[in-house]
Fold each of these.
Amino acid sequence: MIVKSPLSISESEIRNFSEKYIMSLESEYLAWYNYIKNATQSRRENSVKDRKFSEPDLLKIYPNPSVLDVGTGRTSAVGTISPEEGHVIKLSACDVLADAYDLLNSLYGLKPYVKVEFAFVERLTDRYEQNSFDIVRMSNALDHCYDPFTGIFEMLKVAKIGGTVRLIHWENEAEYEMQYGMHQWNITSKGEDSMLIWRKDFRADIRDILKGCARIRTERRKMTNGRYLIASDIVKTDNIETSAKTGMNLFDEAIIRFCLMKTSARFSSAYRKAGNNDPFRKSMFKKLIAYAPMGLRKYVPSWLERCVRGLSRKIGY
């Protein structure tokens, strides 16, 4: 079945959002940097240790699951320790800042129990084979996406038929955070079979887009802090294809800007302002700014790389 993202965004919106996205990646890394820098070594080490599997209810359906944790952050919270004997959990994890987190972990001699790999959710199939995972999980990261609909399509593509894409997010996080940083989308529900993704100028229910290739079940959970979690399980019932691209779509531009970030002084200036003068800084600047194109050469289609030089002039880099 062919599916298509309902987003249609102007060139000026792409440009403005791209700028904000790059700066948000910067602030996301800085937050982790300062957290780890100020933590005790024992707390740092505990943060990267294995833990109990976070989705034990799914072991009834998938006794020995292959799992992908998308947008995992510095280390995965999913875990591979089964709550009972007889289950083997094979976990993969990915994040757009994976290589930057590798640098941060190496600074403090930390070895996460699972390696976090470089991948964009909107480009998961450039990194992973289709129909590979029983469970694909994302927690509090879909609201960061350029295009959350394409992100869901990509997660469904790498899931097996009959597999589950589990999405757990704070309700209406962009509104709660006042669109600060990477929080750009709101997620809520209009019922048990609904997952509504919206912002002030746009809204769509993923249920309507995925009819015929997936079924959805959503639970709205009230938490002790008074807020709600939106927990959705999207079960893949048929293979999906995304509609052919005509020209450059929203996320293609985002990736190109991310690649071109190596020519920017933003990262280094932010770290100087933060007063990070340790010996690791120069190496970190160099690798952090350069890692994106290294990843792109590996995981992004070659035609996109060929466009970078010309587009850099077009968008003013």
Amino acid sequence: MKKLLVVLSLVLGISAAAVAQPRAIGVRGSYGAEISYQHSLGSNFLEADLGWWDGGFAVAGVYDFILASPQWTAGTWNVYAGPGASIAAGGGVSVGVGAQIGLEYTFGSIPLQLSLDLRPNILTINSGLHFLGGFWPALGIRYAF
């Protein structure tokens, strides 16, 4: 439990330390619910999520590469994908690796961001490997600032 709190503190501390970059905070929902924070790192971004699922909670971090940013409307579209890692607690502590692929739209006139993504993970649970996520698309709603 101590290790989980240290990792959570590091993820949130690093994200909060670089305040000069564009960022977004909100919720992401699918199989469970997550508090989601995005931080722009040049042309890519880091996403950190704290979520509740299956009677426990999880912390996930993903480094997303922006693959395309078509400018069809007044807002900004991004197609992104990247690797990630997670730690979950609930019936035991699990560590996982995974990836995320998605599409997001940030409105031009209001500070609102909508995203739709998939994030499959492979977790170690009770000394075994289990596949989690990816089959349920997640909808994210964030305040962009």
Amino acid sequence: MNTLVAVAIAPFGVGDELSANVAEVVKVIRESGLPNKTYSMFTEIEGEWDKVMETVKKATFVLAEKGIRTEVIMKMDIRPGFENMMTEKLQRMEDKM
């Protein structure tokens, strides 16, 4: 089933600058081949449930396997019968403005 996820995966206790660790996480997400977009606080990923969840797990474990405490915040939209939600949800809103 198509799933849209907004996820923030971040290290804890590694200092004030997190960009190097976050870059490792985003790289795993981009290499998944799933549609994704990274913003300042979250990365959106869209695809079939199992593939999306597998990608979130791999992206999380890239830090956790290094012994880094890792925080994951996730919001999901599972909407049967819909695809391309990452772009079409925004387009429907823009069309109404």
